[in-house]
Structure to design on (293 residues):
């Protein structure tokens, strides 16, 4: 009986009609929005695409070329030796400073250095463990005055 | 009791809500139609990539950007925003990775140019070209 009273109530009737109106308008607005996006084809969207692999290439260069990362820098001449890893620098603290990122809005990396019988693995703070791509780079190691060949295994995790 | 012809508070709220939704929908649609959204995204990606590129440079360097099309820029944390004004619904946003102790929090309103530089291991952003040693 009470339900019938509410249904026949003019105010309740108005609210119900408004609710239906909002639902229909909301649906139409969303549909129109996507229709406009679909109709307005834009070749400018292609321009804003970053070539595949370029972003990853730049990040890897940071690890190998920057003295703020692992690149060996001669104290006397201040010369930086690119693709030459200073063994003392290859640690988690240095990586955190060089790749100062905690969110997964950018790529994440796990680096494994194979040098002689030593194997060191470090990862960026945003590494979550799922692998997208991996590559091996032949690098040079500077370890207490000695220069030797080594392999750097780089695992990449895409940004979310 | 409400008199005839009197506007209720709820009606005003609905009116303001409808106006806001309409404004946002038109703003975003126009951004797509005029393709400015890609222009802003392109600038944001370009600036973020420049920061990432300079971070991998071994010495000091800078890049000057003059093609900003009158947009404003906001660098904060690890992201760059490109927008027309504060009410812009379709900002171009992209992320970069910080190096060292770099902590950016800089807003540039309609700059003529923006200079991204790496000096002594830190990324710096300004409107003036820095003096490299």
């Amino acid at each position: 009986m009470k339900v019938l009273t509410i249904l026949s109530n003019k105010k309740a009737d108005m609210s119900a009609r408004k609710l239906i109106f909002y639902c229909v308008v909301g649906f139409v607005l969303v549909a129109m929005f996507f229709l406009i996006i679909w109709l307005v084809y834009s070749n400018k969207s292609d321009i804003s695409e970053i070539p595949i692999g370029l972003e990853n290439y730049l990040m890897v260069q940071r690890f190998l070329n920057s003295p703020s990362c692992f690149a060996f820098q001669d104290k006397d001449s201040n010369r930086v030796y690119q693709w030459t890893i200073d063994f003392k620098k290859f640690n988690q603290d240095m990586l955190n400073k060089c790749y100062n990122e905690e969110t997964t809005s950018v790529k994440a990396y796990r680096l494994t250095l194979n040098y002689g019988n030593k194997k060191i693995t470090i990862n960026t703070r945003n590494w979550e463990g799922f692998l997208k791509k991996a590559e091996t780079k032949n690098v040079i190691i500077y370890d207490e005055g000695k220069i030797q060949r080594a392999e750097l295994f780089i695992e990449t995790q895409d940004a979310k | 009791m409400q008199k005839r012809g009197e506007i209720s508070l709820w009606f005003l709220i609905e009116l303001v809500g409808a106006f806001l939704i309409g404004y946002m929908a038109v703003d975003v649609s126009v951004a797509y139609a005029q393709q400015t959204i890609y222009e802003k995204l392109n600038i944001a990606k370009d600036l973020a990539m420049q920061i990432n590129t300079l971070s991998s440079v071994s010495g000091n360097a800078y890049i000057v950007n003059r093609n900003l099309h009158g947009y404003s820029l906001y660098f904060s944390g690890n992201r760059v925003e490109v927008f027309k004004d504060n009410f812009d619904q379709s900002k171009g946003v992209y992320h970069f990775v910080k190096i060292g102790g770099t902590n950016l929090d800089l807003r540039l309103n309609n700059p003529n140019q923006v200079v991204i530089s790496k000096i002594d291991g830190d990324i710096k952003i300004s409107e003036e070209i820095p003096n490299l040693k």
About this structure: The beta strands of chain A are 71-73, 80-86, 108-115, 118-123, 133-143, 146-157. The radius of gyration of chain A is 28 Å.
